Amino acid sequence: MNTPQSARLPDGRLHLQHGPIDLIIEACGERTAVEAAYQQAIDSFQTVLSGLVNELSVLRTPLDTTTRPVLHNAIAQRMLAAVWPHRARFITPMAAVAGAVADHMLAALTQQRELRKAYVNNG
């Protein structure tokens, strides 16, 4: 598996990429708050893919209507929470991977930071 990559785009946004995960992140606010937020995002991103890979067999399994899978990774748990209400139809937690990763990264970006605006675009 390759390693997580981070780079600043010419317009100042943050680009994070690892395997199939490709994020564009922007934070707006005081320069020191933005830089600290970007570093938090970079730090958090280091284990995103490996954490999901550890749960991949469960995440790829269609849900049944009675047994809720046990997942340990926070992003995997977000994925399950998003699709659980739809378990009566064929669905796997992978349906929610992009949104769950984006939500996780937004939380990491904004934790204890005063920003005017922040977003994470995943794909």
Concise summary:
This protein has five helices and four strands; from the N terminus they run βββαααααβ. By secondary structure, the protein is of the alpha+beta class.
What does this structure look like?
The protein is of the alpha+beta class and 123 residues long. It has helices at 31-45, 48-53, 56-59, 74-83, 97-110; strands spanning 5-8, 14-18, 21-28, 117-122. Helices cover 40% and strands 19% of the residues. The chain is built from 5 helices and 4 strands, in the order E-E-E-H-H-H-H-H-E. A hairpin with a 2-residue loop joins strand 2 and strand 3 (21-28). Strands 1-2-3-4 form a 4-stranded antiparallel beta sheet. The chain starts with a strand and ends with a strand. The mean pLDDT is 96. Helix 4 crosses helix 5 (97-110). The protein has one domain.
Beta-strand content estimate: 15-25%
The average pLDDT score comes to: 96
Helical element count? 5
Secondary structure: number of strands: 4
Distance between the termini: 20 Å
Order of strands across the biggest sheet?
1-2-3-4
Summed up, the domain count is 1
Order of helices and strands: EEEHHHHHE
Radius of gyration: 16 Å
List the helices and strands and how they pair.
Layout: E1 5-8, E2 14-18, E3 21-28, H1 31-45, H2 48-53, H3 56-59, H4 74-83, H5 97-110, E4 117-122
Antiparallel strand pairs: 1-2, 2-3, 3-4
Helix pairs in contact: 1-5, 4-5
Which tags fit this structure?
123 residues; alpha+beta; 5 helices; 4 strands; elongated
